[in-house]
């Protein structure tokens, strides 16, 4: 019986005792030829087998029935990387980490780790990072199957990847003789890649159709190893950082997801894009390089190739693009591709308080909520109050489904962990020195009608009239529908005397303001969560909050609640009562508030997403 011809591709240096058992066990079944590039080879192997050079093999590879590569973490194996890509075969993986096989290691780092690799590169240095990354992803997936001898190596594969176990075989050293031949034959007999390559070789494919055929072929090939992906939609943030509360959440979640997801999962910032009427996702790599402050010219905003074990997660509020993309069936396409879809819903305030938002925003937010309810596999809300509001809305619209999971996850707090605005300006220090001359009360939020700034400012005017000498500090940008209020604040007689509106501030200054405030006033008539409550608790700053359900949910017994009216004089009375309690050290303490760090929040988030 004629033996099948096998090409064994590996350097053959002297003293190959560790692989000779494999070679001699295969000799019984195959007519073996060794493909080498180096000059120095093992004499015993050279005396018993045919030896050819790589150039010869490239001319004669069709003469071989089986191709077997042996990979080790040695520069002598570099020639095999490109050869495997051109002529697929089964690989014996002797080492898990293969960083010595690549000249352009950064290109491989992008493939294996995405932006996480470059963030770590900047933080820990090249030597430490390179030796912690497998650099075997492309090699394994270019093969027809993988054989490993080490249980430790197999465990590493399980740690770093999702495995297609049909294409990976663990053969202990004591079973090499009996298992190798059967393993190789089974790989070739049942491998889908082999069948497709055989089929494609019979086709007469025109040159202008090769690219399209290659795409179809790639879609039909199941990878031997793969990584899960969290496609983190930061479409709005990648265009402009408005420094809003929502964008602080987006930045914090992205930062910690990149640090904390398991090794077998990548986090990839993406942006939703309409290209000639077709909605797609592209990697937000150019923005990522700027935001995380690393540079790699080879990394660009390429299109996302949708794969299994992927999650589309949208924590950014992006009304119009998501609504428009849904109209074209984009999210249904994601579902067909097996992508899990998760949205983060902060509130339904434009629906519940339309009078406090620009015209048309109520209808826009309704449409967005409808899309979210229709397409999501899971929805995360920032509070139970938001969950209740969303369920009520979904029930009214007939959009609740048995397989739709709606959960709530408290937002985290760790201001200094997230890049917001860098640096502390001298002007800010001068203002702070003015502010701290008197005890002061702090409000941190965008200037919007529902936030209660007007009521609080008038209440303090009554307070000042009564001879109580306290400062009032607003931190937050100008929002919408507040032109008259802004004009009033800018021309206020106590401006930069006892009343201060600071707009944006650095994280350092905000920390100073929180830590030194007598109390934080949270006067919003409606919120999805109330991040200022958690930030105040983080800095152990006492809290005076409007008595609404969501604040009771978040702050519990850790805040003093003022009456939920628009009457400034009643608010003045409540502030005076709080001052009296404070002077006697009987005021509610924020220590009672249970809050999460962003790390704790992200641990829970990962459980939901994955």
Q: Which strands sit side by side, in order, in the main sheet?
A: 3-2-1-4-5-6-8
Largest sheet: 7 strands, parallel
Discrete helix count: 27
CATH architecture of the largest domain: 3-Layer(aba) Sandwich
Strand coverage percent: 15-25%
Give a short summary of the structure.
This protein is an alpha/beta fold.
Characterization of the model:
The chain has 610 residues and is of the alpha/beta class. The protein folds into 3 domains: 182 residues, Glycogen Phosphorylase B (Rossmann fold), CATH 3.40.50; 195 residues, Glycogen Phosphorylase B (Rossmann fold); 170 residues, Rossmann fold, CATH 3.40.50.2000. It is 44% helix and 17% strand. The protein has 27 helices and 22 strands. It has a 7-stranded parallel β-sheet. Strands 12-11-10-13-14-15-16 form a 7-stranded mixed β-sheet, sandwiched between helices. Strand 1, helix 1 and strand 2 form a beta-alpha-beta unit. Helix 21 packs across helix 26. The chain is elongated and about 105 Å long. The two termini are 52 Å apart. About 1% of the residues have low confidence.
């Amino acid at each position: 019986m004629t033996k099948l011809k096998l090409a064994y591709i590996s350097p053959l240096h002297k003293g190959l005792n560790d692989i000779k058992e494999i070679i001699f066990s295969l000799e019984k079944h195959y007519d073996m030829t060794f493909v080498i590039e180096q000059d120095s080879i093992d004499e015993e192997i050279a005396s018993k087998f045919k030896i050819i050079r790589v150039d010869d093999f490239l001319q004669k590879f069709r003469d071989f029935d089986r191709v077997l590569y042996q990979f080790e973490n040695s520069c002598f194996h570099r020639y095999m990387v490109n050869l495997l890509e051109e002529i697929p075969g089964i690989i014996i993986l002797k080492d898990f980490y293969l960083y010595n096989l690549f000249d352009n290691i950064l290109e491989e780092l992008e493939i294996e780790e995405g932006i996480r690799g470059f963030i770590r590169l900047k933080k820990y240095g090249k030597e430490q990072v390179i030796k912690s990354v497998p650099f075997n992803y492309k090699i394994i997936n270019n093969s027809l199957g993988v054989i490993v001898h080490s249980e430790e190596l197999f465990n590493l594969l399980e740690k770093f990847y999702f495995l297609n176990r049909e294409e990976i075989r663990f053969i202990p050293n004591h079973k090499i003789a009996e298992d190798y031949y059967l393993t190789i034959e089974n790989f070739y007999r049942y491998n889908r890649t082999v069948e497709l390559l055989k089929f494609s070789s019979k086709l007469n494919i025109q040159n202008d159709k090769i690219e399209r055929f290659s795409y179809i072929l790639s879609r039909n090939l199941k990878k031997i190893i793969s990584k899960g992906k969290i496609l983190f939609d930061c479409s709005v943030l990648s265009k402009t950082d408005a420094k809003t509360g929502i964008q602080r959440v987006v930045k914090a979640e992205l930062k910690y997801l990149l640090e904390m997801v398991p090794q077998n999962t990548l986090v990839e910032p993406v942006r939703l894009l309409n290209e000639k009427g077709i909605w797609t996702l592209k990697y937000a790599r150019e923005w990522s390089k700027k935001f995380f402050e690393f540079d790699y010219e080879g990394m660009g905003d390429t299109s996302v190739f949708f794969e299994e074990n992927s999650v589309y997660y949208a924590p950014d509020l992006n009304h119009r693009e998501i609504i428009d993309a849904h109209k074209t069936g984009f999210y249904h396409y994601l579902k067909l591709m097996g992508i899990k879809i998760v949205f983060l819903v902060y509130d339904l305030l434009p629906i519940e308080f339309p009078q406090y938002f620009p015209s048309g925003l109520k209808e826009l937010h309704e449409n967005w909520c409808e899309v979210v309810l229709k397409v999501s596999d899971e929805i995360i809300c920032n509070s139970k109050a938001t969950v209740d509001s969303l369920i009520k809305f979904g029930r009214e619209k007939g959009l609740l489904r048995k397989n739709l999971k709606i959960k709530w996850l408290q937002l985290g707090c760790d201001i200094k962990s997230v890049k917001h605005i860098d640096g502390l300006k001298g002007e800010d220090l001068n203002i702070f020195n003015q502010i701290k001359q008197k005890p002061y009360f702090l409000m941190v939020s965008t200037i919007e009608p529902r936030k209660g700034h007007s009521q609080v400012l008038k209440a303090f005017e009554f307070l000042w009239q009564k001879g109580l000498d306290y400062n009032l500090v607003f931190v937050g940008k100008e929002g919408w529908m507040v032109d008259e209020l802004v004009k009033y604040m800018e021309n206020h007689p106590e401006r930069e005397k006892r009343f201060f509106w600071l707009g944006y501030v650095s994280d350092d200054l905000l920390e100073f303001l929180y830590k030194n405030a007598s109390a934080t006033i949270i006067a919003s008539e409606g919120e999805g969560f109330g991040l200022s409550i958690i930030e105040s608790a983080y800095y152990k700053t006492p809290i005076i909050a409007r008595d609404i359900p969501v604040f009771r949910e978040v702050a519990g017994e850790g805040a003093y609640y003022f009456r939920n009216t628009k009457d400034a004089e009643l608010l003045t009375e409540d502030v005076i009562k709080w001052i009296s309690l404070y002077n006697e050290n009987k005021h509610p303490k924020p220590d009672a508030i249970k809050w999460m760090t962003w790390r704790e929040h992200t641990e829970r988030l990962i459980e939901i997403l994955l």
